[in-house]
Amino acid sequence: MEVDKGKGEAEETRKVAEADRDTVTLKSSDGKLFEVSKEAAARLSTVLAGMIAGGSIDDNGTDLKQIGSEALENVVDYCNKHANSIPSAALISSSISFNTAPFKEPEEWERKFVDRLSHDALFDLVEAANFLGMERLLDVTCHKISEMMKGKSPDQIREVFNIKNDYTKEELEEIRQELAWAFYDD
Amino acid sequence: MSIRSSSAPPPPASGWAALPRDVLWSIFTALGQREVLSGAGLVCAAWRDFARREPVIWRRIDLTTPEDDVVEEDGSDDDETNIIICKMEEVPSSKGSSRWKAMTLTAIDRSAGQCEAFWGRADDEVLLHLADRFFSLLNESFLFYIDNSRRASSMKSLRVTSYSYDVSSKVFAQVIKKFPLLEELELVLKPQQPSTNSWAELFQSTCEACIHLHHFKVRCARSERHHLDEERSSTTFSIPIMHGLRSLELCGGSFTKNVVMKIVDKCPSLESLNITNLPINRWDDQMRYKCYKIKDVRLPSKCYAYDSDDDMDDMS
């Protein structure tokens, strides 16, 4: 996935090739270059689609300063895997009505894709997906995160995600009053 | 339980606590509202603030449990076993208000009058609260400038499940008027006592109030008391023409053959009619003729095709 483009590569050859290329090159915050199918990038990311359509894709690697190389590698990996997977009904967007769930279950390969990630990698990926406007990847990652929370108390969730209980005394009191029902034993 | 506007937004968080709102929204949506109310929505100041102040999360309230769909004869009331209780600190439990109700009222409050669907357990108090949320907001001065059309409730789907509670006709008739845009209404009730309602009357008030209705379902573990005056309910029953109504599931003795026939007459778009639980024992030519356009007709199991003259009474 990662392309080590030496600076020695002839500028002209690249310019010619760039015009009909079916891939785009993305550059992570730490300067690494990744190549991704243009079609998949445009289909899966509203931000990349906009950049491709608007011609703001840089031949030398479009700068994505907000995304680290590990997250960008996962994004690119996801796009390429997606390009190769059979389009399924799950991805055909349906009209939003009150009885249509806004979220479609992840497919098997998508599940596996996020299951192998560490918590940190998952966090970076969800932020990258959000930044790039990748609705489907966002759904898949958020689904994974929600599974990690399911059935857990606030304390247990804090532990899993290493989140500080940052309530002030006043807020705690407010919660106690507001959610007194949570402690009823009926 | 009500929405407070007192405390200032929480200070900026970092890491998972600082997830963008769009992301949190996706997570909370995937997680479900029960979990947001008792778990994730209480994790830290930022998440709690989002759960409380973002009405979009609560636009479609779905607090159903898998058991809600099952109609059983016994009115067991133990659906709370799978709720995760948040135990942040010990609080002495004093008032005996039930947890499911408090949870439901909190969700309704958080929807801030923008609720489009309510699926879950309810009783009179919950239904009234649901209807009142839209109108109590009118007292807030800024809403006085909003034109009248905006004041109507946006409720489109109501699916009410109840274990011990028998929806009261009076409250129901009052509440249903507040939901003129309602498209879907399902009542799955498991009262401990035989129901005293006339479902035909409830259906009538729903049709009068909700001209956009396209789905109506009543399912009841116990049927109505049979003391209802059949003749009266048959002769006074009248509904406007319901152009949108496509699917009907009826239950109870007040839906006599004559009432069902009247309904079929007034619902030209009906595609599905389920009268499995009606005490209609004969399916005669008249009924067959009236229903021939309906794609999916489900008859009571004891009902048999009977070619008869119209003067034969159905055995309700």
Automatic annotation (TrEMBL), chain A:
Which InterPro entries is this protein grouped with? SKP1, SKP1-like, SKP1-like_dim_sf, SKP1/BTB/POZ_sf, Skp1_comp_dimer, Skp1_comp_POZ
Taxonomic superkingdom: Eukaryota
The biological process GO terms on file are: jasmonic acid mediated signaling pathway; protein ubiquitination; ubiquitin-dependent protein catabolic process
Q: Where is this region: Disordered?
A: 1-21
- Which pathway does this polypeptide act in? Protein modification; protein ubiquitination
Give one Pfam hit by family name. Skp1
Q: Does the keyword ATP-binding apply?
A: no
Coiled coil ranges: none
> SKP1 component dimerisation domain: which residues?
136-182
Entry annotated with the keyword Phosphoprotein:
no
Keywords on this record?
Ubl conjugation pathway
Q: Which residues form the SKP1 component POZ domain?
A: 23-84
In the record, the note on similarity to other proteins reads: Belongs to the SKP1 family.
> How does the record describe its quaternary structure?
Part of a SCF (SKP1-cullin-F-box) protein ligase complex.
- Please give the function described in this protein's UniProt entry: Involved in ubiquitination and subsequent proteasomal degradation of target proteins. Together with CUL1, RBX1 and a F-box protein, it forms a SCF E3 ubiquitin ligase complex. The functional specificity of this complex depends on the type of F-box protein. In the SCF complex, it serves as an adapter that links the F-box protein to CUL1.
Q: What is the official name of this protein in its record?
A: SKP1-like protein
Mind giving the lineage of the organism this protein is from? Eukaryota, Viridiplantae, Streptophyta, Embryophyta, Tracheophyta
TrEMBL record, chain B:
Q: Which SUPFAM superfamilies match?
A: F-box domain, RNI-like
- Which InterPro entries has this protein been placed in? F-box-like_dom_sf, F-box_dom, LRR_dom_sf
Q: Which residues form the F-box domain?
A: 13-61
Any Pfam family hit: F-box-like
Q: What is this protein called?
A: F-box domain-containing protein
UniProt lineage: Eukaryota, Viridiplantae, Streptophyta, Embryophyta, Tracheophyta
